[in-house]
Amino acid sequence: MQTRTLGPFEVSPIGLGCMNLSHAYGAPVAAEAGERVLLAALDAGVTLFDTAALYGFGANEELVGRVLKPHRQRITLCSKGGMAGVRCEDGVMRRVIDGRPSTLRTNCEDSLRRLGTDVIDLYYLHRWDKQVPIEDSVGELSRLVAAGKVRAIGLSEVSAATLRRAHAVHPVAAVQTEYSLWTRNPEIAILDACRELGAGFVAFSPLARGFLCGDLTDVGTLHDKDIRRAMPRFAPEAYAANLKLLDGYRRIARDAGCTPAQLALAWLLHQSGHIVPIPGTTSVEHLRNDLDAANVRLPAAMIERLNVLINEFTVVGQRYSAQSANEVDTEAF
Q: Which superkingdom is the protein from (predicted)?
C-alpha cells in the first residue's frame, strides 16, 4: 500500500471525507449505509478518516466513532472544532464559529466522547474566528496536545500569513482547504507555505462537489437542503456555462483510461507528494472507484491539457456566497 506523509503520520494517499454521510448534501444516509462505506474504506486500505463536530451536529462523529472504534489503532482519526452546532434561544440548532479557548476545549472534549477515543490524531481549527487572535486559538490547541487529548493540530481554510502566525505558536501538521481543478485558490500561496513549513495539505471537495464526477448535469435535481443550492457555481446559469467544460474533460478521462472522478483525484495526487485528497461518498462502488485513482498515471502533456481546460479563469461563479466567503480567511483568495 502506498502512503503519504501528513505531519507525523503515514497515511493512505487518498483518505475518506466522512461529512456527507451525515451532513450538507441533503437528507443524511441511513446508518447502515454509512457503516458500509466506512468499513469498505477500511477494508480497501484507507487509513485517514476525516470528520468534524459540525457534521450532523455531532452525528457524524458518533457514526465514525461507533464503526471504527474496534479498528482505532489502524487509522489516523481527524476531527475539527471551533465551528459547531449551538442551540439558540429559539431552540434551533445553528452553526456557530467560535474560536475562544474555552469553546475549543469543550468542543474537543465533546468530540472525544462522541468518537469513543482518548485521543484525536489530528485536530483542526475548523474556521479561524476573526474575533479571536489565531495565536489564542492555536495556543489552546497546543495545550490539548500537552494534555494528551490531541496528537497534532491542523487549520482549515486559512491564508499563508495566518498559517505562519499559527505555526509560530505550535507546529501545524496539516492545512485543509478546498482544492481541485476548478478551485485553484491554494495555488496562490498556501501550498508553498505548507511545503516550506513541513505541513501536509488535505484537499477537501477534490471532485468539485460532484461536478468532476461528470454525471451531475441538472442542478434542479439537488435536494432542497443541499448546500450547493447556495453556491454561485451551482446557480442554474453559472452551472450551465460550467457544463460546457465536461465534454472536453470526459475526452481526457477516456484518453487516460480512467473515470472522470479518478482523473480529478489523479490530477491532485500529481500536484505534490504532500497533498492528500479526501473525497466523500455514500456509495461503496464510488468509493472503490475513487481509491483506484492512486494507480492512475498522468503524463505531463495530459496534466497540461487539464490545466488549460479547467482553471480559475474558465470556471464560472465563486465557490461561496458572499456571506460564506466572509467566514473564511479571505486573504488566501
A: Bacteria
